[in-house]
Amino acid sequence: MLKKLGMIGLVAAALAGPAGAQDEPLVSFQVLAPRLAVDLAQSVMKACNEKGFQVAVAVVDRFGVPQALVRDRFAGPHTPDTATRKAWTAVSFRSDTQELVPVTKGGMPQSGARDITNALMLGGGVVVSVGGQMVGAVGVSGAPGGEEDHDCALAGIAAIEDRLPL
After folding, report:
1. What is 29-163's CATH number?
2. Where are the domains of the chain?
3. Contacts of residue 135, Cβ cutoff 8 Å, sequence gap at least 6
4. What is the rounded distance in angstroms from the CA atom of residue 148 to the CA atom of residue 141?
5. Integer Cα distance of 137 and 16 in angstroms
6. What tens digit of pLDDT does each residue of 107-149 get?
7. What b/e sequence results for 126-163 when a residue is b if at least 16 CB atoms lie within 10 Å of its CB, and e otherwise?
8. pLDDT class for 17, splitting at 50, 70, 90?
9. HSE-CB for 67 with a 13 A CA cutoff
10. Rounded CA gap, 166 and 41, in Å?
11. Which of 150, 93, 140, 138 minimizes the C-alpha distance to 116?
């Protein structure tokens, strides 16, 4: 019984959060507008097409929920799922997946992250941030490698940057 009460206290303390946070009844956040998410996916695909790559591109909101998905006619059947998982992984870990590849390899302390359902530690998932706040992520699959997927994502984000608030 004492052990159970101790666990309840630990959970309650974790849920309480920092002092002052309890005073705010609502939380505000930003995500990409649906139209901009679609435009981002198309911009990324265009960047890949210019390099001769047939890909799928997924854009997710800051919670990992898909907002847009496009796939070239010759992109492999696995690419929509792979692109979505890369974007989901980027928002889940708040990091571009290209950076997660080396730190999650076998034998590394964080290698267990590869066992998380839906996590995909391959290059091509890139966080989209506005003013230092994550608003979503884009995932790309189908270029010859993760580095090329990553580069296409960056080019697509750069193509819509002028439409993002500072």
Report:
1. 3.30.450.150
2. 29-163
3. 30, 31, 32, 61, 62, 128, 129
4. 9
5. 29
6. 999 999 999 999 999 999 999 999 999 999 999 999 999 999 9
7. bbbeeeeebbbbbbbbbbeebebbbbbbbbbbebbeee
8. low
9. 25
10. 21
11. 93
Tens digits of residue pLDDT in 21-62: 568 899 888 999 999 999 999 999 999 999 999 999 999 999
In the numeric block, the tokens 């699959």 are attached to 141
**pTM of the prediction?**
0.85
- 23, amino acid identity: D
Burial of 114 (0-12, 13-18, 19+ CB in 10 A): middle
Q: Give me the DSSP letters along 57-96.
A: EEEEETTS-EEEEEE-TTS-TTHHHHHHHHHHHHHHHTS-
Token look-up 């964080």 returns 110
